[in-house]
Structure formats: structure tokens, C-alpha cells
Write the C-alpha cells for this entry.
Amino acid sequence: MEEIIRTADPVLVSAVEALLAGEGITVFVADRHISAIEARIAAFPLRILVPAADVARARTAIAQAGWGETLRQGNP
């Protein structure tokens, strides 16, 4: 699994999850529970991970949806 987005925005996470599910891409949201427990402080952002084989397709779908600026660049 590779991290493609790191954010504190739960709405963005839900939207990206729905988008990628529609593309048939498995999505794992890391730190969802600790982020909720800690009241979404910046120390615990939500991280969207996808299988390494689907990274290019996921990045393309996210960019086409207009959220390209949220994509992580380089190594996490």
C-alpha cells in the first residue's frame, strides 16, 4: 500500500474513498480512529493508501476530479 493523500479533511477523505471505489480501487484510510479520538488535531492527519499496482490510476482519477493539489509528492 502506498500513501497518496494526507489530510485532516474528513469530507475530502469520504469523497476520495467514493471516487476510488467507483474506479474499483481498494482504499485504506490510516489513522481514522486515532484522528477521531484526538478531535482531528493536525498531529494525526488521515492518510489515504492504495495498492502499489493502483497508484497511477488512483492519482489520475483524483487529479481528473479536481483534487490533484491534495496528492502527496515524492516519498511520504
